[in-house]
Write a structure and sequence with these properties.
The protein has 115 residues and is mostly beta strands. The protein contains no helices and 8 strands. Helix content is 0%, strand content 36%.
Length: 115
């Protein structure tokens, strides 16, 4: 994927939603798009969108402010609103600046309070 914002759709089609609510922590690994020339001779490692580059997260719903942080270092996670039940959800990460980024991976973890 290439772009400046990336969205995850959690839906019923592939049994992504199997319980009453949707809970997870996640982040993308991103590289600056090949259209933007890096400093010559240096190939940087991909960076985490939210953790390293401070990308902004938004969601179609969340339980409350405690359960609205999907970062990998969060003590909780993102949890869909209690009234959403089995509704499809979306999570979006908007990258900083005007440049475009390539997503190379997605890291998905269980909620942080169950480790």
């Amino acid at each position: 994927m290439t772009g400046n914002a990336f969205k995850i759709l959690v839906d019923h089609h592939n049994n992504h939603i199997t319980g009453r609510s949707t809970v997870a922590r996640f982040d993308f690994l991103v590289d600056i798009s090949p259209d933007y020339k890096p400093v010559e001779g240096i190939k940087e490692m991909p960076k985490r969108a939210m953790m390293d580059l401070k990308a902004k997260f938004s969601a179609s719903s969340y339980w409350d402010s405690t359960w609205s942080n999907p970062r990998l270092d969060s003590k909780t996670a993102i949890w869909s609103d209690k009234d959403q039940n089995m509704e499809d959800q979306w999570w979006q990460v908007a990258m900083p600046g005007q440049g475009f980024y390539d997503v190379s991976a997605l890291t998905l973890m269980k909620r942080g309070d169950e480790l």
